Structure formats: C-alpha cells, structure tokens
Amino acid sequence: MATEEKSSLTAREGAVRMLLAVCKDKQFSHAVKGKFLIRIQEKRERALATRLFEGCLERMIELDYIIDRFSKTPVKKMKPAVAAILRITVYQLRYMDKIPAGAACNEAVNLTRRFGFAGLSGFVNGVARAIARAEEIVYPDAKKEYSSYLSVKYSISSTLVEQMRNQYGDELCEKIFAAFLEEEKYISLRCLNSSTGVDNVKDALSKAGIYVENGRYSKEALRVSGVDTPERLPFFGEGAFYIQDESSMQAVLAAGLSGDERVLDLCAAPGGKTIMAADILASSGTGTVEARDCTGAKLALLKENVERCRLSNVNLMCADATRYRHEDEEQYDVVLADVPCSGLGILGKKPDIKLFMTIEQEKELCILQKNILRNAVRYVKPGGVLIFSTCTLNKEENMGGYNFLKEECGMRPESLETFISKSLWNDTTKDGYLQMLPGIHGTDGFFTARFRKQI
C-alpha cells in the first residue's frame, strides 16, 4: 500500500482514483485533489486529471444517464472502478473535442485492465464505442418531463430539482442551475485595507498578465480569471488579499462595523469573515475578533490564514458553537453566525455536495442551526447586532432561521440598505435579509440577515 501511495499516476488513472475516493469512499473533492494530484508529475497531465475529475462531478447525472442508455448493466450495478472509467470516457466524448474518440475508448480499455478488471474490458469497449458512434443522445422532453429534463441537463438530483422548483419557480430555477455549470469561472478576492490595498494589488495582478476587474458589490473586491493556483498570485504570501466570494462579504458589511467593537465569529473556518472583520477594525480603530470553530483541523486552517494576513487583533479558540458558554453571555457587540448548512449555493465550486445532500440532512441541519443561533443570541450585548448567514439556497434553512430569530428569540430585523451596495437592494433588504443567487447576481448563492438585540 505504501508503494501505491508514492507511485506516479497518469491523468486518467488519477481522475478515476479521485472519483472513487468521492463516490465510493465519500471523501470531499478538495481533499481528494490534494491527495492525488501530487502523484501526477507533469503539469499538463495534472490539468487533464483535474478537468476530468471536476467535469465528471459536475455532470455525473448526465453521464450516468447516457451510459445507461447504451449499457445493459446500469451504472448503479457496475463495479465502482468500471463506472468511474466509463464516466471519464463519456465526459471526454461529450465535452473534450480535442481528444479523439478512438483514443478515449482505447484508454478506457487500458484503464479497465490496469484496475484489475480485464474480463470486463470488452464490455467497457463496447459501451464506450457505442456512445462514440451515436449521432444523437435523446434527452428527456422538457415539455413533457420538465423535472427529468432539468435533472439530466444540469446534473441535479430529481429531489433537489423538485425542491428548487417549488421554492423558486421554473424560470429562476433553471437560471440558477445553468450558472452552476458555467465554463468561465472567476475567483473573487477581498483586498485588505490594512495591508497593500486594492489598487496596488490590482496593478500587480495586471502587470503579471492576469485578467482582473473590480468587484461588483464591494470596493475592496477584485475578480480574477484564468487562475489555477491562487496561492501563486502576486501578494498572496504577503497577506494582501483573501479569497472570498462577494456574496460572503455582504455578511460582514451588514454588521456595519465602525472600529471599536468586540466581534465574535462563531463558525469561523476557513476565516474569510474573521479576516474581513479584523481588517475593517484594524483600518478604522480598535476592536477585536474572537474566532472559533469546533475542530483542531479547522482551527489550524484559521490560524494559517490569519497569520498570513498579519492580523494581530484576532483571538482563536477551539469551541463547539452548539454548546452554551456562560462566560460569553451578553459580551459581544457583534456576533457573526455563519452556520453550517446544506451548501446549495456553492454547487458550482463544490459539485460533490449535490451528489450526497438529502432532504433528511437538510432537516437535521435546520435543527443544528437553531441550536447555534439560540446560543448566538445570548452572546449579543443588549443593543448589539447579530448577523445570520448561510451559503445555501434552501428557504427552509434560511427563512426558517430568520423567522426563528425574529419570532422565538425576540430579535429585531434591521434594514440592510445602510450597509450594502444599492445595486443589491430589493423587496427584502428593508426587512433585514438578502438572498443572493447564482445566475442573477453573478456570485455564489448566499443568505444574509441582520438583527438587533433589544435593550
């Protein structure tokens, strides 16, 4: 086993092993990439492995639909390795025109043998070549089977499709799904005012030949495109910026920090909101951020990011947000409660979520969220502010938490319009909440709500 861990991999073999780690072993895709890509020697091969792996995760329901139309054995009954091999093969046939169909099919046969299933190489070859020869793939009829059409076209589970249609309606639902599969993806950065500043970072990126443009909703935000490794960008090591979606920035902007507050970030890892809040405080006055999360690994990630950004006004603690801490009762001017959620707003970045998230898990998360929010309310000083946020689109989680804070915890919603960009104002922002949507706002899906604790 030790030899296997150190041995080098080809791009396609690496992609298959990564798919197995996610689909069979239920590992997270970002962790899987870190484990396997280092075993692929050439940069070009690593790029191919990444494209195959991420593409298969994004398109898996569609790929399985196609395979099932040409195979007597459905994907669900195949050996996991055989299913993974066929998936990367069909992805090449459908979405990578520069790879000859014959080469993709031959590689599928070779991989089948390499993974110890030589007896199934004829089966794999037959299915792959039948798909390669097909002039047309018949998809579900959008007029007759709209949910099935959406599920296959955008590789979203039928359960999630129905949930989203019920919550957002057909037209908006399809726009959101389409945005998750957009080929041209950007990375959003927030530049630290206490460090280099946005103008200097933008100038350095431009001089390095990187496409960069201003953010849409925050003057400290930049958007860069065509970047595979953000860690190699100019000024990254100096802590001049942090990778953070503009939708997430709204949660800190909504807090309206003036520079003297004591802030608690309850579920802080990996640290975007902590760093943003600490930067605002450092730039405009005094104040501190208490940043917490529930495991040593998350705390280590927090520490790494805070230290890189050279922020001295952050205190870190390993603590479970569901457990009430009496010593924190009414001690904080602002509490940031970015609670664990289903993550349905970031499917474009973490497509493995849509493979595993269930309605039952969403309901369990709603209970967990309320346990955390109940504690968060108690930590806010009288007259202080609570920010509730998630990176999901599920209204049961978002409005469920909003109504819980308002009706059961006695928190008073406050308008967001003093704090956020005017271009984000809508029918709900005066009521104290904002749902940002992929395909509409050009960001991740993110929910932010602002509350005041009565004196």
Describe the model.
With 455 residues, the protein is α/β, with parallel strands linked by helices. Helix content is 46%, strand content 14%. It has 17 helices and twelve strands. The chain has helices spanning 2-6, 11-23, 29-36, 43-70, 80-95, 101-114, 121-133, 146-154, 158-168, 170-180, 198-207, 246-253, 272-284, 296-308, 353-356, 359-379, 395-408, and strands spanning 186-191, 211-214, 221-225, 241-243, 262-265, 288-293, 314-318, 332-338, 380-390, 412-413, 433-436, 446-452. Helix 2 (11-23) crosses helix 4 (43-70) and helix 5 runs parallel beside helix 7. The longest helix is centred in the first third of the chain and has 28 residues, at 43-70. The radius of gyration is 24 Å and the shape is globular.
